[in-house]
Each structure stands twice: as C-alpha cells, then as structure tokens.
Design goal:
Elements: E1 2-6, E2 9-14, H1 16-23, E3 28-34, E4 38-47, E5 57-61, E6 64-70, H2 71-74, E7 84-92, E8 98-105, E9 116-118
Parallel strand pairs: 2-8, 4-6, 7-9
Antiparallel strand pairs: 1-2, 3-4, 5-6, 7-8
Length: 130
C-alpha cells in the first residue's frame, strides 16, 4: 500500500493482491519507521457493517490512522484490470473542516492505464422501507 497526503485528502493506493486481501477479511497495512524508535501505521480494513450503519470509519492517534470500509463497497472494486478504481468518502475533522479519504486500486502493471473508474455506491434512503 502506498499512502500520500495532498491538501485535505488522504490517498491510499493498493494493488490487486491487496484488494484480494481486503476481500478475504484481512487488513492492509503500511508501517513507516521514524526516528527515536517510533513508527506510524496506516491500516485499511473491511467491515461487515453497511455504510449506513457505520461501515465507514476513520480513526487516528499519534501512532497511526485506521480506515474501515464496508465490505460491500470494497466488493465493487476489482471489476476491471485496465483502469484504476476508487472509493471516496469525506470525514468531518472539526466543525469547519473535512478530510477526504480515497481508496484507489491500481490496475495490473501489464495493462495500459487510460483513466480512473470512480465507483459511487447507491446511498439507501433512510426513510424508505427497502
């Protein structure tokens, strides 16, 4: 997994094999060693909960960031091997600020990258009976 920060956005880029790891129920982690025996971890993990019941979560402390995504939305990724695919979600960090988190699955290395395919799951109406 590669992680980068840009403005108020956190990009987590994973390979197809790391996507398979998430789909099997395991986390994908990046651990960076820092001076004075410190380290910083970014962890992406699947959740059985749907998006409307807390399946998307972002937690942090001085030692790392933990992103939890609904498994049903992770399953939407990996439909193509020629495009990068991504899921995006905004999280409030204060009353006036938000951070956007982007999980991007990179195309297979032997495929030509032409574009990015953005996956936008349907958000269920909380007032419907469905």
């Amino acid at each position: 997994m590669d992680v980068r920060f840009a403005g108020q956005a956190l990009y987590c880029q994973i390979s197809r094999s790391e996507l398979d790891r998430l789909l099997s129920g395991r986390s994908v982690d990046l651990q960076v060693s820092l001076p004075r025996s410190h380290s910083f971890r970014v962890s992406v993990r699947p959740s059985a909960l749907p998006a409307d019941r807390g399946g998307w979560q972002l937690d942090s402390d001085p030692t790392g960031i933990w992103l939890t995504l609904p498994r049903t939305e992770i399953e939407l990724l990996g439909q193509t091997t020629t495009f990068a695919e991504r899921l995006m979600r905004d999280f409030p960090v204060s009353t006036n600020e938000r951070v956007q988190v982007i999980l991007e699955v990179l195309p297979d290395e032997d495929k030509v990258v032409g574009s990015v395919l953005e996956i936008t799951p349907q958000v269920a109406d909380p007032h419907s009976d469905a």
